[in-house]
Amino acid sequence: MADIKLLSPEETEKMFGRFAALKLDTNHIRRKYMDCAYGEHRRQAVDIYLPDEGDGPFPAVCFLHGGGWAVGNKRDAQILPFMSGVEQGFAVIAVGYRLLPDIRYPDNLYDVKAMLRWLYQNAEKYHIDPDRVALCGASAGAHLAMMAAFTAGQAAFEGAPLSKTCRIRAVVNQYGPTDFLTQHAQYDESGYPRCDAPGQPRAVDRLLGVRLEDAPNLAPFINPIDNVHPGIPPVLIQHGQYDPCIPYQQATTLYDKITAQCGEGRAQLYLSPRYTHADPGFADPESVKTIFAFLSKHLFP
Fold first, then answer.
1. pLDDT per position as a tens digit, 225-281
2. Which of 41, 76, 102, 270 could cross-link with 238 by S-S, CB 3.0 to 4.6 Å?
3. Which residues lie closer than 8 Å to 103 by C-beta, 6 or more apart?
């Protein structure tokens, strides 16, 4: 086994602090609906931002924040790469969901599914086109976005009886985990630093309430890569090569599997040779241009 290089707590704090230092300013957006509840818990709510002009219905970009399924909120700066969508004719929806330790998986996935049903039911009120929706997320939020999109219409993953819901036309995965059982082997292969030491409890273990390595039969129920099938929507994958929280191979192996099972063009890979985890570079103009070229292609056909 390769020598294990661990990121120090100070280095980890500095890495996350860069995005945390940015602020989300929505004062310039005239039309917005804040804290719209789709469930009873205070975190089961969305903020909806609409273009200044027009009655829609607008295609919707739904964003799920990261934070290890335990921290963060819908007004985190992580949504910054997507906020310019309001100026490009999209409704941008910041999605809140329940966090650890109040829940265990799949409760947070059920929240995403409940939000999609609520959005379908209230689409006219909020000028949304429920047939043109993208699920986007960062880190843990990207995991939930992929799982929700890849399991659309599958009763075991809904948390409620099947009913009318939004149609997911596209997914944006920013540095999300795709295969929890292979992560340490991927760091061993690359020799890059990592945040977690092998054998130590991880965020996914807390999410499941059991160490995943001790119950590997649970992997297909939580791994996005195990839920790839020919019917999934197009996926844009953005990842940094020097990510110490989620190895970059989580992105490349997902891209390879989608391409093999769904054909060329179903997945698009943007692998940065510079970025780490939750890197502010994902909000840079080049990254944002990539995101909205992809979303426009699939939500404005």
1. 999 999 999 999 999 999 999 999 999 999 999 999 999 999 999 999 999 999 999
2. 270
3. none
Q: Which domain CATH number covers 242?
A: 3.40.50.1820
Residue 126 phi/psi, 5-degree rounding, is -105, 15
- Report, in this order, helix, strand and coil percent for the chain, each rounded to 5: 40, 20, 45
Give a yes or no: residue 1 inside a domain. no
Q: Is 116 helix (H, G, I), strand (E, B) or coil?
A: helix
The position carrying tokens 């840079």 is 284
Cα 260 from Cα 249, distance rounded (Å): 16
Token couple for 294: 């992809």
Please check whether residue 204 lies inside any domain of the structure: yes
Domain that holds residue 266: 9-299
**Parallel, antiparallel or unpaired: strands 235-240 and 267-272:** parallel
